[in-house]
């Protein structure tokens, strides 16, 4: 890295603290363009290349410090009531009110195909960007909706900072009384059928209508949304580059409601449904998993089951435990398969059924962290589709 690039990074960090994420992002993009014109290795080779890890990590670290205090009120097992997205897209990372020019656009739409219809909300970040942006699909948990999930995960704030679009599919009470995604029904576990077909269809619609970078489309979810994210990454490996599953279950864990309840309790001897085949090395995609080891809603053994297909004697594995003052300790395992697929598994010690590092503005959040939203974004941006 040359002195000019380092100076630009320092300028971006200063702007993040004093002006806001839009100005900081513009400074970083300007620095990367200058490095690219000089042929420097630090710049991405194309808009589809991963953002340099040191840039992403520094941005997210500063955002965590400013926007997510560890002593914020909230509890994992005593979830706050669902909240609207008020303020989610109008707060800067330093907590100050954003100007109208800095606020992205959060709009509601409906998608219809042969499998049915669902509403969705779309967040397009503030500021114009010349290059195609990534897309992150966020699948809410039971009893939640798009506004609540956006408020709790603060994903829209990160979208303004790093420059990506966020898609929030919405489950209707007519399709599930508790607004859960029907991850346990055979008809909703297949490509081209049911809810996977609807979600994949709206993703393709957004890719086409908003000029999304098709190599950087990611899916994440909480609980039932996490279980559906596991279905989608397995059934549509050509569409999604990577997935994040928080407090969820593996694809094919159940074939009806009774077996779903058994899987959620961590019951042994559950038969794998026909749709639950383990992906092959050629179709497996990067996966990041978060699970609290005090989760009494979805048993922590489901986190182990999610990453088990990637473990082998030939995989590279690194495990580290971190003690966090005032927060949750955690153990992170990093796995790289012989085929080069990256996996991260975060076990959050003492955490229940809640989005780690989330805001108490949304339901089912645990502000103590670690910051699942920021860590997922770091992982996603480092893992575009090959090609």
Automatic annotation (TrEMBL):
<keyword id="KW-0732">Signal</keyword>
<feature type="region of interest" description="Disordered">
    <location>
        <begin position="69"/>
        <end position="104"/>
    </location>
</feature>
<dbReference type="InterPro" id="IPR010126">
    <property type="entry name" value="Esterase_phb"/>
</dbReference>
<dbReference type="GO" id="GO:0005576">
    <property type="term" value="C:extracellular region"/>
</dbReference>
<feature type="compositionally biased region" description="Basic and acidic residues">
    <location>
        <begin position="93"/>
        <end position="103"/>
    </location>
</feature>
<protein>
    <submittedName>
        <fullName>Poly(3-hydroxyalkanoate) depolymerase</fullName>
        <ecNumber>3.1.1.-</ecNumber>
    </submittedName>
</protein>
<keyword id="KW-0378">Hydrolase</keyword>
<dbReference type="InterPro" id="IPR029058">
    <property type="entry name" value="AB_hydrolase_fold"/>
</dbReference>
<dbReference type="Pfam" id="PF10503">
    <property type="entry name" value="Esterase_PHB"/>
</dbReference>
<feature type="compositionally biased region" description="Polar residues">
    <location>
        <begin position="77"/>
        <end position="91"/>
    </location>
</feature>
<dbReference type="InterPro" id="IPR050955">
    <property type="entry name" value="Plant_Biomass_Hydrol_Est"/>
</dbReference>
<dbReference type="GO" id="GO:0016787">
    <property type="term" value="F:hydrolase activity"/>
</dbReference>
């Amino acid at each position: 890295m040359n002195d000019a690039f380092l100076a630009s990074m320092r300028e971006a960090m200063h702007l993040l603290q004093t002006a806001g994420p839009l100005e900081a992002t513009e400074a970083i993009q300007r620095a990367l363009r200058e490095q690219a014109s000089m042929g420097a290795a630090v710049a991405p080779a194309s808009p589809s290349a991963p953002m340099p890890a040191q840039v992403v990590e520094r941005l997210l670290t500063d955002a965590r410090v400013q926007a997510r205090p560890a002593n914020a009120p909230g509890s994992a097992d005593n979830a706050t009531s669902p909240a609207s997205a008020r303020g989610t897209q109008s707060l800067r990372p330093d907590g100050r009110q954003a100007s109208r020019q800095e606020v992205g656009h959060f709009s509601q739409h409906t998608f219809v195909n042969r499998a049915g219809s669902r509403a969705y909300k779309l967040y397009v970040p503030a500021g114009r960007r010349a290059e195609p942006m990534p897309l992150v699909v966020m699948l809410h948990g039971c009893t939640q909706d798009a506004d609540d999930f956006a408020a709790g995960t603060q994903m829209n704030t990160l979208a303004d900072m790093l420059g990506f679009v966020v898609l929030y599919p919405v489950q209707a009470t007519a399709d599930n009384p508790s607004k859960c995604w029907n991850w346990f029904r055979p008809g909703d576990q297949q490509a081209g059928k049911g809810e996977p077909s609807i979600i994949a269809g709206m993703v393709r619609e957004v890719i086409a209508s908003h000029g999304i970078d098709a190599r950087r489309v990611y899916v994440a979810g909480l609980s039932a949304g996490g279980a559906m994210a596991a279905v989608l990454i397995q059934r549509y490996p050509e569409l999604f580059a990577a997935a994040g599953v928080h407090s969820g279950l593996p694809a094919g864990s159940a074939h009806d409601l009774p077996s779903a309840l058994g899987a959620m309790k961590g019951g042994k001897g559950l038969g794998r449904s026909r749709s639950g085949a383990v992906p092959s090395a050629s179709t497996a995609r990067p996966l990041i998993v978060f699970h609290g080891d005090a989760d009494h809603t979805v048993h922590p053994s489901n986190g182990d089951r999610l990453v088990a297909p990637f473990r082998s004697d030939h995989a590279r594995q690194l495990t580290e435990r971190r003690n966090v003052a005032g927060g949750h300790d955690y153990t992170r395992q990093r796995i790289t398969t012989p085929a080069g697929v990256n996996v991260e598994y975060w076990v959050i010690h003492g955490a229940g059924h809640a989005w780690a590092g989330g805001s108490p503005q949304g339901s089912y959040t645990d502000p103590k962290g670690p910051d699942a939203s920021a860590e997922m974004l770091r992982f996603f941006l480092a893992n575009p589709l090959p090609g």
